[in-house]
Amino acid sequence: MTRTDKSIRRTIPALVLAGIVTACGGSAPEDVESETVVPVKTETAQLGTIRTVIHATGVVAPAPAADLLVVAPQAARVAEMPKAEGDRVRRGDMLVRFEIPTLTADAAKQRAEVGRADARIVNAKAAQARARDLFERGVAARKELEDADRELADALADLAGAQATLEAAETIAARAIVRATFDGIVARRTHNPGDLVEATTSDAVLRVIDPSRLEVSASVPIGDVSRVTIGSPARLAGGEPGPVLTVASRPAAVEPGTAAVPIRLTIRSSTTLPVGAPVEVEIEAEEHKGVVLVPTVAIVREGEETAVFVVAGNKAQRRTVTLGVADDHRTEVKTGVKAGETIIIDGQAGLPDGATVTTDAGKADDGGGAASPKTP
Known about the structure:
Radius of gyration: 46 Å
Distance between the termini: 38 Å
Number of helices: 3
Strand order of the largest sheet: 4-13-16-15-14-17
Shape: elongated
CATH topology of the largest domain: conserved putative lor/sdh protein from methanococcus maripaludis s2 fold
Number of domains: 4
Largest sheet: 6 strands, antiparallel, barrel
Order of helices and strands: HEEEEEEEEHHEEEEEEEEEEEEEEEEE
CATH class of the largest domain: Mainly Beta
């Protein structure tokens, strides 16, 4: 055997051994292992104060004492209506005069009854005087004097009754003329002079409102009612400056067929909102002070569990948290996160626990994302 043959025989086992080592999971000294680095955005959890907001829908309406709906006292004809829709009115101005013949006739009848009662009293007094004179002269018996006294008493009672009935009739007859009870504006006019109208709110003749006394009637979900307190501030949704609102009343009943309760909000400042305009309102509710706050976008929800990702070194740690109240941008964290910890607010979706992260998309934190040699 030549020297070349011996050399070849030594080389083949070495190659076979190298192949076996490679197949068993070994790596050459020059092989490297790399780790994916996830770019994220972060903010710091802070101690602060948060006030919750209740969102509700509502409609602009006049305050209870600032809305006058003119309805006929009974079926009648409109005799006079000097104010048009949009006209300003002053307290005491005549709004509508109804023509109601039955009321006029009834008042006249009662005045006649008062006249008859007056005449009866005159006769009774004269009879009483005669009976007393005869009794004193011994001509008439005491019973005749007592009967005269009783007749006068009955006549006086009849007069009082007739006068009360006349007063009531005149009061009803006076309802034929309706006057403004406050300064305001004619919001709606549905009839004209000569029209026949019924004594129902569905056939109202005129509506007058006071635009300086408006409120919002908001429908608040039943679950949020306990968080509403009288005097709490509120505002129109949308972020733009608007009228100042204040909660004026607590609910007394649920709106039929809904899961909401009406809440009255007084408009404390001037507004150009028309009556009947639909609005979205935000009512301030309870306030929590000195609590840990994180941006709401940082919250990860998986089923019934909530979590946030905290950056520790260059690793993302998934923390299960217990949440408190929230506003439009921040959420209270009761457990799981401390003030001062760095919270991931963007990039946490689908992020595995323990992943390497960087807050700079082009550079890994502390070199954690760089490729490094790995020995076999």
